[in-house]
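Each lists chain and fold; for instance:
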Amino acid sequence: MATIGETIDLDVPIGVARKKWNEYVSGMVIGSGLGPREREYPFRWRKAEREAEQGALQFAAIGDGITRLTVALEFPELGSDEPAEAARIEQLRAYLRYDLDLFREFSEGRLRLAT
């Protein structure tokens, strides 16, 4: 089993981080951007990330207005013993890092949403 985890610090209070995460995830699942007045959220979990069997999300206040977000995804079919699987783990880690960087921009108000 492989656990892919990444941590990111957000320049927002913990309550704002949780609210923005819920808004973002709802937009990812519900918002297709195709209907009238529907917003397209640029953050999309890649198919490979969505295939995780389990996952955990943790928000922690680490300073005045700073929140640390940790995401861990479990992939039971992957192990790091095989070179191909180790490469796949690193690819999944890079996808997660990229997606969390986009979330940071969104939560801190630097990412424009399409209208």
In short: The chain is about 40% helix and 25% strand.
